[in-house]
Amino acid sequence: MHLSDNCNSLLAGLPACAIRPLQLIQNAAARLVFSLPKCSHTTPLLRSLHWLLVTARIHFKTLVLAYHAVNRSGPSYIQDMVKPYTPARALRSASAKRLAAPSLRGGPKFPSAKTRGFAILAPKWWNELPIDIRTAESLHIFRRRLKTHLFRLHFEQ
Fold first, then answer.
1. How far apart are CA 146 and CA 52, in angstroms?
2. Minimum mean pLDDT range among 25-29, 114-118, 130-134
3. What is the predicted pLDDT for the residue at 102?
4. Any domain includes 131
5. Alpha carbon of residue 13 to chain centroid
6. 33-50 burial, b for 16+ CB within 10 Å, e for fewer?
7. Residue 31 within any structural domain of the chain
8. Within a 13 Å sphere around the CA of 3, how many CA atoms are in the beta-carbon half?
9. Total structural domains in the chain?
10. What are the residues whose beta carbons fall under 8 Å from the beta carbon of 3, sequence distance 6 or more?
11. DSSP code of 41?
């Protein structure tokens, strides 16, 4: 599912009912790979294929964009959407590569729109990551650790 989800970070913040049809397509693809009937349970199939659920793929792609922004390797308009967290005084957490949560004041008039989108969700999801993922020394290591983390979160509950 690598080529088909290049822009799926645009789906960040959508309600589950909008993501569900995409998950059903992914489930059907997993059944097709294993030549199984429509009624087959897909969790073991997705786990075996090492495919992240659609919601996890959205997190993955959004956080990869955030990694580029944090490390100043992404497009400037993405870099401008996230700001590093700088504490008011010297704290040990200053080296944890956290992002500042944007203010929701002066934002859109509709509350549901305030909690969507890259500028809001990327810092929230980034700060929830374990420090060893946030401080990964390369994109390759970041992607590997992030996928493992998300895979465990969604499949090993």
1. 11
2. 114-118
3. 81
4. yes
5. 11
6. eeeeeeeeebeebbeeee
7. no
8. 0
9. 1
10. none
11. -
CB-CB contact of 143 with 64 (8 Å): yes
Residues 97 and 71: beta-carbon distance below 8 Å: no
Q: List pLDDT tens digits, range 42-81.
A: 999 999 999 999 999 999 999 999 999 999 998 888 888 8
Helix, strand, coil percent values for the chain (each to nearest 5) = 60, 0, 40
d(CA 23, CA 157) in angstroms, rounded, equals 19
DSSP 3-state of 36: coil
Give counts: helices (H), strands (E), the chain. Answer: 8, 0
Separation CA 33–CA 25 (nearest Å): 12
- From CA 20, how far away is CA 23, in angstroms rounded? 5
Give the domain range for residue 79.
50-155
38 phi/psi in degrees, rounded to 5 = -60, -30
Question: What is the Cα 145 distance to its own chain's centre?
Answer: 13
The verdict on residue 17 lying in a domain is no
In a domain, 60, yes or no: yes
> How far from chain centre, in Å, is Cα 33?
25
Look at residue 111 in the predicted model and tell me its pLDDT: 45
